[in-house]
Amino acid sequence: MADRYATFTRTGPGRFLTRRLGLPQPAALHRWSPERPAIEGPLLLMTAGDIPLPGLHESLTRTGTPPHTGPLGSRRPAAVVLDATGVATVTALADVHAALHPVVRSITPSGRVLVLGAPLSPADHHQAAAQQALEGFVRSLGREIGRGRTVQLVRTPSASAAEAPLRFLLSPKSAYVSGQVIDVDDTTAAAAADAEAPAAADSAARPLAGRTALVTGAARGIGTAVAEVLARDGAHVVVLDVPSAAQDLHRVAEHLQGTALPLDITADDAGERIAAALPDGLGVLVHNAGITRDRRFANMAADRWSSVVEVNLASVLRTTDFLLKSGTLRRGSRVVATASIAGLAGNAGQTNYAASKAGVVGFVRSLAPRALAEHGVTVNAVAPGFIETRMTAAVPLFLREAGRRMNSLGQGGLPVDVAEATAWLATGAVNGQVLRVCGQSLLGA
């Protein structure tokens, strides 16, 4: 369903009226397209603290956006990267203000602010305090910067480990991701680099070329969008959904030159049937299938509880365990599960759904380090906020409007926003990350 309020605010009368009344004015976000694949304008590189991160200039250049370190003259920056890895004292936090304060208003609409921080030191509580302060700063700046601009914090031990997150966060593919903290490490980066690369892979343009990707719940909505983006990035896509959705599923598969696999993911033998359909292994497993059966807890029948937990959580655990054990998921494979803001912050009428999605977060955080160490497989999750789908279009008007406006970008996301984040996690750049795709929702942390 179209966001008519956002459309109205972009007209002359709409801008005037909403400005006078102090109402939200959602910006038109610059999302990725073949015609506009990159941010449009210079990238400004700045430093706070005493010791700059070695190799950062070169890593940024490899992302396709060579940085400027001096004055831009009359040009406005489309992105600012602040290297704050050297901020080790409270006093040094003043450098953050000194660097960003003069330029923050000049950043172009749909621009980017990326702060690079260091891992928190367990041996130096002054460094840990100063670095943790960056998280509060980033989340707060994201709330107020406006005009479709986003702000992120990447904690990294090295420039090379930060390179993949920088490539994603500095691109239009991250348009609906803001106020996030992403932790990277050299171990994951090295494992991703050392993973057995498919012969057909051809660099950043098609990072999933030569891989097979399975997307559950792919017959419509977010699942279809995920399949489309994975196919765009080079993967051969196997789309899975319940047999009753077979007609739509085959239509998606035909459109993407992929393979349809009609299957109830809750079936006891679902793992075996997936493994049998993929004898050559699986490069990417996307757990997208999910249902809602909303009721307030006092009115919730047992079958409403159990059906949601079974589809959204139990099937994820059971299928992943089998595919790891069978070797269908192997060194270099990626698992991306779908959590939800509801699982992080809770939501009235969704105790079953929130429990299942919080369980997905626990699954990721526990399995990720072991899966990487034992199998060479990364495990991550996306946590969507309010996304414009047929399901949210059925939400009553006032609740729908609240969902759209209660985030820093003042609008709902699109299925492609979740798909872009999923595709990035499918490259294996990070491990154990729960990436919120919510426009920096006002709900939860």
From TrEMBL:
SMART domains from the entry?
PKS_KR
Q: Which GO terms describe its molecular function?
A: oxidoreductase activity, acting on the CH-OH group of donors, NAD or NADP as acceptor
Q: Can you tell which superkingdom this protein's organism belongs to?
A: Bacteria
Q: Where is this region: Disordered?
A: 55-74
| Domain Ketoreductase stretches | 211-385
Q: Which InterPro entries match?
A: KR_dom (IPR057326), NAD(P)-bd_dom_sf (IPR036291), Sc_DH/Rdtase_CS (IPR020904), SDR_fam (IPR002347)
Which family does the similarity line name? Answer: Belongs to the short-chain dehydrogenases/reductases (SDR) family.
Q: PANTHER family from the xrefs?
A: 3-OXOACYL-[ACYL-CARRIER-PROTEIN] REDUCTASE [NADH], SHORT-CHAIN DEHYDROGENASES/REDUCTASES FAMILY MEMBER
NCBIfam families in UniProt: PRK08261.1
Q: What is this protein called?
A: 3-ketoacyl-ACP reductase
Q: Which organism is it from?
A: Streptomyces silvensis
